[in-house]
Specification:
By secondary structure, the protein is an alpha/beta fold. 47% of the residues lie in helices and 19% in strands.
Length: 239
């Protein structure tokens, strides 16, 4: 069985995963594996989000059967749909149900910002304006100031196909327009290429949804490893 060092269970919100898988296995150290169960988000509409929220408990049970060490719940739009504080209620429910340490991707992101000492945040997203405003509301409700937010106005099925140069320039240009303590890149469908190059160009940390989730999972599981090339946050896991 793979995962002799750590077995991370992940509840993926959408019906298909691609970018997240590539990013995850590029980043994690040897001996760390991933078990996944899926929800049913196809579009970021209320009906899809609420249906998927109702599927989390069953998905967590599947991961428990696989003997994972931690459960990470993706789908930050689901959490943001319910508002600040809802992530902690979901975490408590799933931990009580499974007996397994649990987090959400939005929780991991907020904890990462605090780890890095951020007060003001720039958000470079793939979303339309309605989801961007939910991101803003959640971050402000969690005690941060959003310096500015820009989205590429892509639907869920389009996010995987955003070219890497487009993503790089979007993140860079958004920060240049709205300087802050760091850049948050939400959505595990959306990858930030060459994070350390971005950080060198911008002079601040860059945190993606996937990077935050991996950082928190490995931190909770006490996996100490120098992860190079993926930004300042993951370097904090070095022994």
């Amino acid at each position: 069985m793979y995962g002799w060092r750590a077995r991370i269970g992940h509840i993926y919100p959408a019906v298909v995963a691609e970018t997240f898988l590539s990013d995850f296995f590029r980043i994690v150290p040897d001996g760390v594996t991933l078990a996944m169960s899926y929800l049913s988000i196809e579009i970021l509409k209320k009906e899809d989000l609420e249906r998927s929220l109702g599927q989390i408990d069953r998905a967590a049970d599947f991961l428990k059967q696989r003997g994972v060490d931690i459960i990470t719940i993706g789908g930050a739009p689901m959490v943001r749909h319910l508002g600040p504080g809802s992530d902690q209620k979901i975490i408590e429910r799933i931990q009580n149900q499974t007996g397994i340490p649990t987090t959400t991707s939005q929780t991991a992101a907020v904890d990462a910002f605090r780890e890095l000492g951020w007060k003001r945040i720039t958000v470079a997203s793939p979303y339309h304006d309605d989801q961007n405003e939910r991101v803003r509301a959640f971050l402000e409700g969690s005690g941060f100031t959003v310096a500015g937010i820009r989205g590429l106005k892509k639907n869920v099925v389009e996010i995987h196909d955003i070219p890497l140069p487009t993503a790089y320039r979007h993140i860079r240009d958004t920060f240049w327009a709205y300087p802050s303590d760091g850049v948050y890149v939400p959505c595990a469908h959306f990858t930030a290429p060459r994070v350390e190059t971005l950080e060198a160009d911008l002079g601040v940390p860059v945190v993606t949804s996937t990077i935050a989730m991996i950082w928190q999972a490995l931190k909770v599981l006490r996996v100490r490893h120098l992860i190079e090339g993926e930004g300042r946050l993951l370097r904090r896991l070095a022994p």
